[in-house]
Specification:
By secondary structure, the protein is an alpha/beta fold. The protein is built from 12 helices and 18 strands. The strands form 5 sheets. The chain has a 7-stranded mixed β-sheet, sandwiched between helices. The relative contact order is 0.12.
C-alpha cells in the first residue's frame, strides 16, 4: 500500500525562561561502549536521541566507541538549543503505514531486530574451527556498522556442534522470535531448519555451501549466497568475443565428476548463448609434446579463445605448457578461460596465466587497492590482532547485505532484494528467484583477468 504523507505545520512560541531547569545542574558523562550507538544510549537515559546530539553538537554518524558524551539533565527541553524565540517545525506524518510493503518501508531505530548465526564452531574442542570463528568476527564488524546507522540488533550465535542435531536446537525455543537466521552450513541442516520453522516468516540464509542451491526450489524464505557452478561459468563466458575469432573447448579425455558436470554446463551455456565452438580432448602422456598437434587448430594472428574445463593440476600444467609454446612461438595468440581452482595450483607456471590473459570466475576475490578494504583491514587488525581470511571478509559481506536489507526494507525484504545495495569487500550479490514458489540464489561472481605486466584486473 502506498504511503500517504501529509505535512502538519506546528507553530509554537517558546519562552526561554519558562523551562524550570536551573543552570547549576551538571550533565552526566557517558563513555560510548562497544556496539552502542546514539539510539541505545538515548534509550538508557530516557531521552530523545536528537537532544543528546544537539547538546554535544554531533551527528549520529559521529558517535564512536570510546567517545565521552555529555548527557543533559532530565527534563531539559530540546528548544533550549534553539537560537530563535519562535520555532516553526514541520512534522512528517505517515498514514496509513504498511510494514509488509518493503517498497515504502521506513527504517525505524526503535525496532530491535533479532538475528541468529548458526555455525559448527566446535567450541568444545581444543582447537575450534577457525574458519567459522573468523566468519563470526567479520559479521560482528558488519553488525557494528549497521548499529551506527541506527539499526537495533540482538545478535545470538549458536554452535551447532553442541547440539545432537538441528531439530534439538529449534525445539529448545531459542529461534522462536528471529527475523533472520544466517546459517547453518550444510544442506541437510538447512532443510531441517526450514522444516522446523515452517509457517514462520524468518528468513534463512545459506552463507557458505555452494551445493545447497536445490534447497531454494520450494522454500521462498531461503537465500543461497554462494553462486552455483552454473552461474560462475555463465559469468565467465560472458567475456568471450566470438566475433573476433574461434572459441575452443579443451577437456581431459574421460573426464568424470565435477569436471564432467562443468563440461556439460559449458556446452549448455555456449549453445544457449548461440556461441559456436569446437572441441578438443586428450590424455596426458609422459614425455609427449602435443604443441605440434594443436598448433594447426588455431588461426594465425587472430583471437583464439580457449576454454579449459579441468581441475586436474597435472593435466592443466601440461596443456598450458603446450598452449604457451603455440602462443609464444607460432604466432597463434591464445586467450585462456579457466577454472576457479587454478588459483590454488602450486605447480603451474604463472607466466602461462599472465601471458595468455587467463580469465577466471570466482565466488570471492579481494582487491587490496579498494579504500573500503583498507579500512576494514585496519579495523580488523586493531580489534582482533590478526589478519583476516576470506571467511572474515565473507562474514562481513553477508552480514552487511542482509542486515541492511532487514533494516531498510523490513521483514519482507525479499520482495525488494534487487534494491538492497552495499559495497562488499570480496563478493558480488545479485539474487534471483528460482521459481514463483521458490527462494533466491546469488547469480553473481567476480571475474578477473591476468595481464602480461603481472597485474590482475577485476573485470566484474
Amino acid at each position: 500500500m502506498k504511503c500517504m504523507v501529509k505535512y502538519v505545520v506546528l507553530a509554537c512560541i517558546i519562552l526561554l525562561g519558562s523551562c524550570g531547569v536551573t543552570a547549576q545542574v551538571k550533565p552526566t558523562e557517558h563513555t560510548v561502549r562497544w556496539m552502542e550507538n546514539i539510539y541505545i544510549i538515548a534509550k538508557k537515559y530516557n531521552l530523545d536521541p536528537q537532544i543528546i546530539l544537539d547538546y554535544n553538537k554531533l551527528s549520529a554518524q559521529q558517535v564512536k566507541r570510546g567517545m565521552v558524551l555529555l548527557i543533559p539533565p532530565q527534563g531539559i527541553d530540546r528548544t533550549l538549543q534553539q537560537d530563535s524565540l519562535v520555532q516553526r517545525e514541520f512534522v512528517e506524518v505517515a498514514t496509513p503505514f504498511n510494514p509488509n510493503d518493503c517498497s515504502n518501508y521506513l527504517p525505524y531505530p526503535g525496532i530491535n531486530h533479532a538475528v541468529s548465526l548458526i555455525l559448527p564452531f566446535q567450541l568444545s574442542r581444543e582447537e575450534p574451527d577457525s574458519r567459522f570463528l573468523e566468519f563470526y568476527q567479520g559479521l560482528l564488524l558488519a553488525t557494528e556498522d549497521l548499529k551506527q546507522e541506527g539499526m537495533g540488533i540482538t545478535l545470538s550465535s549458536y554452535d551447532l556442534a553442541a547440539y545432537p542435531n538441528m531439530h534439538t536446537l529449534v525445539q529448545s525455543g531459542a529461534l522462536q522470535n528471529e527475523a533472520l537466521i544466517l546459517g547453518p552450513v550444510y544442506a541437510q541442516d538447512l532443510i531441517a531448519l526450514l522444516q522446523d520453522t515452517y509457517g514462520s516468516e524468518v528468513k534463512i540464509v545459506s552463507p557458505l555451501d555452494p551445493q545447497a542451491e536445490h534447497v531454494s526450489e520450494t522454500n521462498p524464505r531461503f537465500f543461497q549466497v554462494n553462486p552455483s557452478l552454473y552461474w560462475q561459468q555463465y559469468n565467465l563466458l560472458q567475456y568471450l568475443e566470438p566475433q573476433l575469432g574461434e572459441v575452443w573447448l579443451f577437456s581431459e579425455e574421460g573426464a568424470t565428476g565435477t569436471d564432467r558436470e562443468l563440461l556439460l554446463l559449458t556446452k549448455q551455456i555456449l549453445t544457449e548463448s548461440s556461441i559456436p565452438f569446437r572441441e578438443y580432448s586428450h590424455k596426458v602422456l609422459k614425455d609427449k609434446n602435443i604443441a605440434n598437434d594443436i598448433a594447426p587448430l588455431f588461426t594465425p594472428y587472430t583471437h583464439n579463445q580457449v576454454i579449459v574445463v579441468s581441475s586436474n593440476e597435472g593435466f592443466v600444467s601440461d596443456l598450458l605448457r603446450n598452449l604457451y609454446i603455440v602462443h609464444s612461438s607460432q604466432q597463434r595468440p591464445i586467450t585462456l578461460f579457466g577454472n576457479a581452482v587454478w588459483r590454488n595450483f602450486d605447480n603451474v607456471d604463472l607466466d602461462y596465466y599472465h601471458q595468455m590473459h587467463l580469465h577466471l570466475s570466482l565466488s570471492y576475490y579481494v582487491d587490496y587497492e579498494r579504500p573500503e578494504l583498507k579500512k576494514f583491514l585496519a579495523r580488523y587488525r586493531a580489534l582482533y590482532q590478526a589478519e583476516p581470511s576470506a571467511y572474515a571478509y565473507h562474514g562481513y559481506d553477508v552480514g552487511l547485505f542482509f542486515l541492511r536489507a532487514l533494516y531498510t526494507k523490513g521483514p519482507h525484504f525479499e520482495e525488494c532484494i534487487e534494491y538492497v545495495h552495499t559495497q562488499p569487500l570480496q563478493s558480488s550479490f545479485r539474487f534471483q528467484k528460482t521459481n514463483p514458489f521458490g527462494g533466491f540464489i546469488n547469480t553473481d561472481s567476480r571475474v578477473i583477468r591476468y595481464l602480461p605486466d603481472y597485474r590482475i584486473e577485476v573485470l566484474h
